[in-house]
Write a structure and sequence with these properties.
single chain; about 300 residues; alpha+beta; Arc Repressor Mutant, subunit A; D-Maltodextrin-Binding Protein, domain 2; 3 domains; five-stranded mixed sheet; 10 helices; elongated
């Protein structure tokens, strides 16, 4: 009977689960070519095809689906046993993989890292900056940080920050001599700095609300970015009107380099939340990280 290593079987399960060599390789921390070689070697040992590959997709064959049905619970059981053994140790170790936006990293993760690393020297924190909503189960991530209003319903969510607000801002030099902005619709006549949501492939519509009236305004202008830091820099350079998180522009409002507009149209919304899948046994490294977030002043 052909022998197949547990690592090879787990690699096959990872590819079959997400339907992509590229995504599975990223989750496993290897290259796409190495992962492809692993699957070919496994198929050669077993004597039958496990995956059907085309130029656009990867899917399990009938034999692959049969094997996957037996593999999934077995791998989950092994992972559970390892986590139980790990939880019995006095030290926290292992790699914690978290997906977050850059704003979430700066606001929630960065402030606690010095104390967390000092307290748990055997732990490794891997932060993946990403603006699309990733399947943290399929991508083998431990947790993610996103805005509370954007969370999936099947995730456990922990509030880790205050409510946030957006701010419409512009440099005094830009506003000089131009029509005043007193209502969100006035933005249509101004040069605005757009934000492209890479994951969705669309331009973000600016959201406003006041006295029960909600508006989504699709603005236009000469600049579009997918990084808020660049949008802020463009607003400071007087190149147009920006729409950014209020706490990120607060220092520039205080020193007068930016002017706050339409403040009565941008109410608070749920801030950053840590989210993770419902599991019977939480990994100790994730539990320790959550505790660090809870103890943050």
């Amino acid at each position: 009977m052909p022998k197949a290593s547990l690592d090879d079987l787990a690699a096959f399960a990872a590819v079959a689960r997400v339907g992509s060599f590229t995504r599975a390789a990223a989750a496993l921390g290897t290259s796409t070519s190495n992962l492809s070689h692993t699957i070919r070697r496994l198929e050669a040992r077993l004597g039958y095809r496990l995956l059907q590959r085309t130029s656009r997709s990867v899917s399990a064959t009938e034999d692959g689906l049969t094997l996957l049905a037996e593999l999934e619970p077995a791998l989950a059981s092994i992972e559970g046993v390892l986590e139980v053994l790990e939880s019995g140790q006095d030290r926290v170790s292992g790699t914690l993989r978290i997906t977050a936006t850059r704003q979430a990293y700066e606001a929630a993760i960065r402030p606690i890292l010095p104390a967390f690393i000092a307290r748990h020297p055997d732990a490794v924190v891997e932060v993946l900056i990403d603006y699309r909503y990733r399947d943290i189960v399929a991508d083998r991530l431990d947790a993610g940080i996103r805005l509370g209003e954007k969370l999936e319903q099947d995730m456990i969510a922990l509030r880790i920050g205050p409510d946030l607000r957006m701010a419409v801002v512009a440099a005094p030099a830009y506003l000089a001599g131009r029509e005043p902005i007193r209502h969100p619709r006035d933005l249509i006549g101004h040069r605005c700095i757009n934000y492209r949501m890479v994951g969705a492939g669309t331009i973000y519509a600016w959201e406003f609300e006041r006295d029960g009236e909600a508006l989504d305004v699709r603005v236009a202008g000469p600049l579009t970015f997918n990084e808020p830091e660049l949008m802020l820099a463009a607003a400071l350079d007087g190149l147009g009107v920006g729409y950014l998180l209020e706490h990120e522009v607060a220092p520039r409002l205080e020193d007068g380099r930016l002017v706050h507009l339409l403040s009565d149209w941008t109410p608070p919304f749920p801030g950053f939340h840590l989210y993770y899948p419902s599991r019977r046994q939480m990994r100790p490294v994730l539990a320790a990280f959550i505790e660090a977030l809870r103890q943050r002043p």
